Structure prediction request, 138 residues.
Amino acid sequence: MVIERDIDIVRRDWEKVELIVDTTAALLYDRLFALDPALRLLFPPNIEEQKLKVIRMLGASIYGLSDPEVLIPILQLLGRKHFAFGVCARDYDTLADALLWTLRLGLGGGFDAEHEAAWKRVYAELAAHMQADLARDS
Ligand code: HEM
Prediction:
Protein backbone atom coordinates (compact mmCIF):
# COMPACT_ATOMS: atom_id res chain seq x y z
CA MET A 1 0.00 0.00 0.00
CA VAL A 2 1.50 3.31 -1.13
CA ILE A 3 1.41 6.14 1.42
CA GLU A 4 1.73 9.91 0.86
CA ARG A 5 5.30 9.85 2.14
CA ASP A 6 6.28 7.23 -0.47
CA ILE A 7 4.92 9.45 -3.24
CA ASP A 8 6.89 12.36 -1.85
CA ILE A 9 10.15 10.41 -1.69
CA VAL A 10 9.73 8.87 -5.13
CA ARG A 11 8.88 12.21 -6.74
CA ARG A 12 11.91 13.90 -5.23
CA ASP A 13 14.17 11.05 -6.35
CA TRP A 14 12.62 11.16 -9.80
CA GLU A 15 13.37 14.87 -10.15
CA LYS A 16 17.08 14.01 -9.78
CA VAL A 17 16.94 10.99 -12.07
CA GLU A 18 15.19 13.02 -14.79
CA LEU A 19 18.18 15.33 -15.00
CA ILE A 20 20.19 12.40 -16.36
CA VAL A 21 17.33 10.71 -18.21
CA ASP A 22 19.42 9.24 -21.06
CA THR A 23 21.91 7.70 -18.65
CA THR A 24 19.09 6.39 -16.46
CA ALA A 25 17.38 4.77 -19.46
CA ALA A 26 20.63 3.22 -20.69
CA LEU A 27 21.51 1.82 -17.25
CA LEU A 28 18.00 0.47 -16.70
CA TYR A 29 17.91 -1.47 -19.97
CA ASP A 30 21.49 -2.71 -19.72
CA ARG A 31 20.70 -4.06 -16.27
CA LEU A 32 17.38 -5.55 -17.40
CA PHE A 33 19.03 -7.47 -20.23
CA ALA A 34 21.95 -8.51 -18.01
CA LEU A 35 19.48 -9.97 -15.49
CA ASP A 36 17.51 -11.78 -18.20
CA PRO A 37 19.04 -11.73 -21.72
CA ALA A 38 15.94 -13.44 -23.18
CA LEU A 39 13.95 -10.24 -22.55
CA ARG A 40 15.92 -8.50 -25.31
CA LEU A 41 13.97 -10.63 -27.80
CA LEU A 42 10.68 -9.01 -26.79
CA PHE A 43 11.95 -5.65 -28.02
CA PRO A 44 12.59 -4.43 -31.57
CA PRO A 45 16.25 -4.27 -32.69
CA ASN A 46 16.37 -0.50 -32.25
CA ILE A 47 15.14 0.31 -28.77
CA GLU A 48 16.44 3.86 -28.35
CA GLU A 49 12.97 5.38 -28.61
CA GLN A 50 11.44 2.64 -26.48
CA LYS A 51 13.90 3.33 -23.67
CA LEU A 52 12.61 6.86 -23.29
CA LYS A 53 8.95 5.85 -23.65
CA VAL A 54 9.17 3.64 -20.57
CA ILE A 55 11.09 6.22 -18.60
CA ARG A 56 8.57 8.93 -19.50
CA MET A 57 5.67 6.67 -18.59
CA LEU A 58 7.30 5.84 -15.28
CA GLY A 59 7.67 9.55 -14.62
CA ALA A 60 4.08 10.29 -15.65
CA SER A 61 2.85 7.48 -13.39
CA ILE A 62 4.81 8.79 -10.46
CA TYR A 63 3.24 12.21 -10.89
CA GLY A 64 -0.16 10.58 -11.51
CA LEU A 65 -0.15 8.56 -8.30
CA SER A 66 -2.23 11.15 -6.49
CA ASP A 67 -4.82 11.06 -9.28
CA PRO A 68 -5.64 7.32 -9.39
CA GLU A 69 -8.94 7.73 -11.25
CA VAL A 70 -7.01 8.93 -14.28
CA LEU A 71 -3.90 6.82 -13.82
CA ILE A 72 -5.40 3.37 -13.19
CA PRO A 73 -7.29 2.97 -16.51
CA ILE A 74 -4.16 4.11 -18.39
CA LEU A 75 -2.03 1.53 -16.58
CA GLN A 76 -4.61 -1.19 -17.22
CA LEU A 77 -4.59 -0.43 -20.93
CA LEU A 78 -0.80 -0.38 -20.95
CA GLY A 79 -0.82 -3.70 -19.10
CA ARG A 80 -3.02 -5.28 -21.76
CA LYS A 81 -0.58 -4.10 -24.43
CA HIS A 82 2.26 -5.64 -22.45
CA PHE A 83 0.46 -8.96 -22.29
CA ALA A 84 0.25 -8.81 -26.09
CA PHE A 85 3.98 -7.96 -26.25
CA GLY A 86 4.61 -11.23 -24.36
CA VAL A 87 5.54 -9.69 -20.99
CA CYS A 88 4.76 -12.01 -18.05
CA ALA A 89 4.47 -11.48 -14.30
CA ARG A 90 8.07 -12.54 -13.61
CA ASP A 91 9.31 -9.89 -16.07
CA TYR A 92 7.74 -7.15 -13.95
CA ASP A 93 9.85 -8.40 -11.01
CA THR A 94 12.99 -8.38 -13.18
CA LEU A 95 12.27 -4.80 -14.22
CA ALA A 96 11.77 -3.90 -10.54
CA ASP A 97 15.23 -5.30 -9.71
CA ALA A 98 16.77 -3.41 -12.65
CA LEU A 99 15.03 -0.19 -11.60
CA LEU A 100 16.18 -0.43 -7.97
CA TRP A 101 19.73 -1.16 -9.12
CA THR A 102 19.64 1.88 -11.44
CA LEU A 103 18.30 4.16 -8.69
CA ARG A 104 20.92 2.93 -6.23
CA LEU A 105 23.64 3.76 -8.73
CA GLY A 106 22.14 7.08 -9.86
CA LEU A 107 21.22 8.44 -6.44
CA GLY A 108 24.14 7.04 -4.45
CA GLY A 109 23.99 7.62 -0.70
CA GLY A 110 20.64 9.40 -1.03
CA PHE A 111 19.00 6.09 -1.88
CA ASP A 112 18.74 4.59 1.61
CA ALA A 113 16.49 1.82 2.97
CA GLU A 114 13.54 4.19 3.34
CA HIS A 115 13.82 5.27 -0.31
CA GLU A 116 14.16 1.68 -1.46
CA ALA A 117 11.04 0.65 0.48
CA ALA A 118 9.09 3.60 -0.96
CA TRP A 119 10.11 2.70 -4.53
CA LYS A 120 9.25 -0.96 -3.99
CA ARG A 121 5.75 -0.02 -2.86
CA VAL A 122 5.21 2.45 -5.68
CA TYR A 123 6.49 0.10 -8.40
CA ALA A 124 4.45 -2.80 -6.98
CA GLU A 125 1.36 -0.60 -7.18
CA LEU A 126 2.01 0.36 -10.83
CA ALA A 127 2.84 -3.22 -11.83
CA ALA A 128 -0.27 -4.53 -10.04
CA HIS A 129 -2.52 -2.14 -11.97
CA MET A 130 -0.85 -3.13 -15.24
CA GLN A 131 -1.60 -6.78 -14.45
CA ALA A 132 -4.98 -6.38 -12.72
CA ASP A 133 -7.12 -6.79 -15.82
CA LEU A 134 -5.24 -9.90 -16.85
CA ALA A 135 -5.65 -11.52 -13.44
CA ARG A 136 -9.41 -10.96 -13.70
CA ASP A 137 -9.54 -12.55 -17.17
CA SER A 138 -7.61 -15.69 -16.29
C1 HEM B 1 5.77 -0.19 -14.64
C2 HEM B 1 6.29 -0.91 -15.62
C3 HEM B 1 6.31 -0.53 -17.09
C4 HEM B 1 6.02 0.64 -17.73
C5 HEM B 1 5.60 1.98 -17.09
C6 HEM B 1 6.17 0.43 -19.15
C7 HEM B 1 5.93 1.36 -20.14
C8 HEM B 1 5.91 1.10 -21.50
C9 HEM B 1 5.45 1.99 -22.52
C10 HEM B 1 4.91 3.40 -22.28
C11 HEM B 1 5.55 1.37 -23.71
C12 HEM B 1 5.18 1.91 -25.09
C13 HEM B 1 3.77 1.41 -25.42
C14 HEM B 1 3.30 1.85 -26.79
O1 HEM B 1 4.12 2.24 -27.64
O2 HEM B 1 2.09 1.79 -27.01
C15 HEM B 1 6.10 0.06 -23.46
C16 HEM B 1 6.37 -0.89 -24.43
C17 HEM B 1 6.98 -2.09 -24.18
N1 HEM B 1 7.37 -2.57 -22.94
FE1 HEM B 1 6.97 -1.72 -21.16
N2 HEM B 1 6.58 -0.86 -19.36
C18 HEM B 1 6.67 -1.49 -18.12
C19 HEM B 1 7.05 -2.78 -17.89
C20 HEM B 1 7.59 -3.61 -18.82
C21 HEM B 1 8.20 -4.88 -18.55
C22 HEM B 1 8.32 -5.53 -17.18
C23 HEM B 1 8.63 -5.38 -19.74
C24 HEM B 1 9.37 -6.66 -20.00
C25 HEM B 1 10.60 -6.79 -19.67
C26 HEM B 1 8.26 -4.42 -20.77
C27 HEM B 1 8.46 -4.60 -22.13
C28 HEM B 1 7.94 -3.80 -23.12
C29 HEM B 1 7.95 -4.13 -24.55
C30 HEM B 1 8.50 -5.42 -25.16
C31 HEM B 1 7.35 -3.06 -25.21
C32 HEM B 1 7.09 -2.93 -26.74
C33 HEM B 1 8.32 -2.49 -27.45
C34 HEM B 1 8.06 -2.31 -28.93
O3 HEM B 1 7.65 -3.27 -29.59
O4 HEM B 1 8.28 -1.20 -29.42
N3 HEM B 1 7.65 -3.35 -20.18
N4 HEM B 1 6.32 -0.09 -22.11
In short: The mean pLDDT is 92. Residues 4 and 66 are 8 Å apart (CA to CA).
